[in-house]
Design goal:
- 37% of the residues lie in helices and 18% in strands.
- It has helices at 15-24, 26-37, 42-45, 114-121, 159-172, 178-190, 194-213, 251-271, 291-296, 305-319, 341-353, 379-389, 405-412; strands spanning 49-54, 107-112, 135-136, 141-149, 224-231, 234-235, 237-244, 275-282, 286-289, 326-333, 357-365, 394-399.
- β11, α12 (379-389) and β12 form a beta-alpha-beta unit.
- The longest helix is centred in the middle third of the chain and has 21 residues, at 251-271.
């Protein structure tokens, strides 16, 4: 059976044609999405929008008639007469140019929905090095045996269970055995007493009638093997989002960090339905907060990175056993930290956090590169760089502008991120 979906989109466009186009031009559309995302902020990206793809990649085989002359009448034309040269479609009006003058590239504009845009952008991203430590429930289902049923497909008939139930029914109802009837018939042949013969005939007829009333296999005996769906196990993971919201973080830096985590949150929620996400923000003290407070709640104060690491360690110890959970963490900060706190933060990382973490990503946010000169590495960056070179599962990136959020995010969570762990 072949079903053609002819439902229309809100713009009265064929849904089937749209889906077929996305499948055929997925590579081109995905390149356009990534190119467009560099010039957008997260809010615009999550709303989808229009992308442009080159026409030279849209060619399809087609039949054409070669030669011949055709006369056509196009009614309603009030602008052109015979012999006029029509301007090229999509060209700039008022700008004359002959063939071969200048470089140009035809483009096809295509509008993507919010779901389509985010799906294409996140298509080749995945949490790195997801090791299966303990199995957890998910919506994906498998099939397993679940006893027997009184109805089902003939292919699922359980012969052994059906025969055993039929035998139990025959025994319970005292169905005459064929051997018993045969013995009475043999006695009838050698019996010469008429009274005894009449008695034997009556008994044989009664037994045969009873045997007919109690069938060898009755429909109530038939049993079918029953199957039921069961959740398939997969690995479970928890993602810790740590963000510095201290007084040293300017509004521009906080905006960069919040945009990074917004995109990270969308990625995790869309790709991993059973990944736990823990939001921790910190100044000179750390606290676990909900999503809305993490992104929008005001906070200010000093800077103690160790407070966030200690809070993460306490949460891991109380709720997420490393033997059962794959632990991932992503931290965003401007790199400033108290001088006396550096040793404490390094000890927490090396002794408490990194040994139980599958992956730790650090995003250092800075001032707009167009406004300030390039600054030397911060104390926190230097500390993390030393740990990374020693082989710790740690990835580091710097971001100064909004346009850098997307490529950095993409780079941090590529499938091949495992290569970064080599010392």
């Amino acid at each position: 059976m072949h079903i053609v979906d002819r439902r229309l989109n809100p713009g009265s466009k064929s849904l089937e044609n749209r889906q077929r186009f996305l499948r055929r031009a997925k590579a081109l559309v995905q390149q356009a999405v990534k190119k467009t995302s560099h010039d957008r902020d997260i809010k615009d990206v999550l709303e989808g929008g229009e992308v442009s793809i080159p026409l030279d990649g849209m060619d399809e085989p087609r039949f054409r008639r070669e030669g011949g002359t055709r006369d056509m009448i196009l009614p309603g034309n009030k602008k052109f007469i015979e012999g006029d040269i029509l301007p090229r479609s999509g060209g700039s009006g008022g700008k004359a140019g002959g063939a071969g003058e200048g470089d140009s590239e035809d483009a096809f504009r295509f509008v993507l929905s919010r779901e389509e845009f985010v799906d294409l952008f996140l298509d080749d991203l995945e949490l790195p090095d997801l090791a299966k430590r303990k199995l957890a429930e998910v919506e994906s289902e498998g099939i397993r045996r679940a006893g027997y049923a009184t109805s089902g497909s003939p292919a699922n008939i359980s012969i052994s269970r059906t025969v055993s139930r039929a035998m139990a029914r025959r025994v319970a109802l005292r169905r005459p055995k064929p051997e018993e009837i045969a013995a009475l018939e043999a006695e009838l042949l050698i019996c010469g007493d008429e009274a005894r013969r009449a008695e034997l005939l009556a008994e044989i007829e009664a037994l045969k009638a009873k045997a007919k009333r109690i069938p060898f296999i009755d429909p109530i005996d038939i049993r079918y093997r029953r199957f039921e769906t069961t959740p398939k196990p997969i690995a479970q993971a928890v993602m810790f989002c740590l963000m510095d919201v201290s007084g040293s973080m300017t509004e521009h830096m906080k905006d960069l960090a919040k945009r990074f985590y917004t995109l990270l949150y969308v990625f995790l929620k869309r790709r991993y339905r059973h990944v736990e996400i823990v939001f921790i923000r910190h100044t000179d003290r750390a606290e676990e907060v909900d999503e809305d407070t993490f992104f929008h709640g005001p906070a200010s104060g000093g800077t103690l990175v160790s407070s966030a690491l200690q809070e993460m360690h306490e949460i891991v110890r109380s709720r997420f056993r490393p033997a059962d959970w794959n632990i991932y963490a992503a931290q965003a900060s401007d790199g400033d930290n108290s001088t006396s706190d550096g040793e404490v933060a390094g000890r927490l990382l090396t002794e408490k956090i990194l040994p139980v973490s599958q992956f730790f990503a650090y995003l250092e946010v800075g001032q707009d590169a167009g406004l300030t000169f390039e600054m030397p590495d911060s104390s926190l960056w230097t500390l993390y760089e030393r740990l990374r070179l020693a082989g710790a599962p740690l990835s580091m990136r710097k971001v100064c502008e909004r346009s850098e959020i997307f490529p950095v995010f993409h780079d941090l969570f590529q499938r091949r991120v495992r290569q970064e762990r080599a010392p």
